[in-house]
Design goal:
The protein has about 90 residues and is mainly α. Helix content is about 75%, strand content about 0%. It is rod-shaped. The N and C termini lie far apart (about 95 Å).
């Protein structure tokens, strides 16, 4: 009888240990979720920095004529009245 009870307890402990480690809410699942959270936090931090840079650029464009002028000159290749534009072309 004692052996049967011992075997039962060993099986019960083994079953519980298996579910504790490999189960749906087990330790393995918690480790996987922690890795996913860390990865998502890195992505969020990178996007946060990008958003801050874009906000700064928008504020510069709203507040200053110099920023608007610089943007127009670089992106749209505009020149002021009275300026001379030179284009250097490499011969191949």
């Amino acid at each position: 009888m004692a052996r049967l009870l011992l075997v039962f307890f060993v099986c019960a402990i083994g079953y519980q240990s298996y579910h504790l480690y490999f189960g749906e809410q087990g330790i393995k699942r918690q480790e996987e979720l922690a890795k996913q959270i860390a990865y998502q936090e890195r992505i969020n931090l990178r996007l946060k920095h990008r958003n801050q840079a874009l906000r700064a650029q928008v504020n510069d464009l709203r507040l200053g004529e110099e920023a608007v002028e610089e943007h127009i000159r670089t992106e749209l290749q505009y020149i002021k009245e009275g300026e001379v534009f030179y284009r250097m072309v490499n011969k191949k």
